[in-house]
Amino acid sequence: MTAPAQNTAHLAALLKTLALSGMLHTLDARLAQAAAGDLGFLEFLQTLCLDEIDRREAGKHQRLTQQARFTLPGASIETFDMTADPGIPAAQIRDLAALGWLNAGQHLIITGPVGSGKTHTATALARQAIRSGHSARFTTTSRLLADLAGGHADGTWAKRLTAYTRPSVLVLDDWAMRELTAPQADDLYELVTERTAAPKAGSIILTTNRQACDWYPLFPNAVVAESLFDRIVNNAHHLPITAPSYRARKRPTP
Q1: Which residue of 86, 91, 92, 253 has the fewest CB atoms within a 10 Å radius of its CB?
Q2: Contact 147, 165 (CB under 8 A)
Q3: Region label for 106, one of left (φ > 0), alpha (ψ between -120 and 50) or beta (otherwise)
Q4: 3-state secondary structure of 204
Q5: Which pLDDT tens digit goes with each residue over 131-146?
């Protein structure tokens, strides 16, 4: 059973005015249920409203995922084989997936050797944040620095910085890979300062194969380094992954 065309057209106009036109997607199915006696008047309206809520939530999730720009789109808590090696801190990862650190405005530093699953873990936790309605952005540190440098060149630095300070979670992959120039160190300082400023404080996830004590020589200015690290390290959960290369374990045998 479907609604008459003229009634549907009138209803569509009304729903559009109320910004509820998504209800039309399931209207015929719900009318059929109501006609069959499966839905009463109140249940019919409630079900249509729930359909619209589900549609909006799905759209929001898709939009936030696209905006995050993940390089491992399939990475999630569910797809990470935490039993592959005893060096993977499975219990701690599951605790972090509850997002208490994010709700408290804290950061996360994931350390481990190359290929051990740091990027997968960071992506999975950022995806958990999106599932809870938070925004996220993923980038490598080198790509971030190149983007901000381009902003200095064309006068769009402030706009570009905002793109990294606005999301609730910012993942900086491959942190502390190489020595920084003075402008790069200053850009990182401004970024971290903006993201940690109340009341809009956002969380940062760093993945790195260096311990925090080894970051200092990479910065040309010790004062900038100390101030930056104080804002991150002292308010961060530390997640060490001591497993050997995850990618090596997945490599085909000859």
Answers
A1: 253
A2: no
A3: beta
A4: strand
A5: 999 999 999 999 999 9
Q: Can you state the angle between helices 24-35 and 5-17, rounded to 10 degrees?
A: 130
**CA angle 201-207-213, nearest 5°?**
90
Distance CA 241, CA 124 (A): 15
In the chain, the domains with their CATH numbers are 5-68 (no CATH), 90-248 (3.40.50.300)
Averaged pLDDT score across all residues of the chain? 88
Joined together, the tokens standing for residue 210 give 């260096």
**Whole-prediction pTM value?**
0.80
| Residue showing tokens 């969380």 | 203
Token pair 């509820």: residue: 20
Token reading at 14: 């009304």
> Which residue, among 115, 114, 98, 94, has the nearest Cα to 106 in the 3D structure?
98
174, 208 in Cβ contact below 8 A?
A: yes
Looking at this protein, which amino acid is placed at residue 208? T
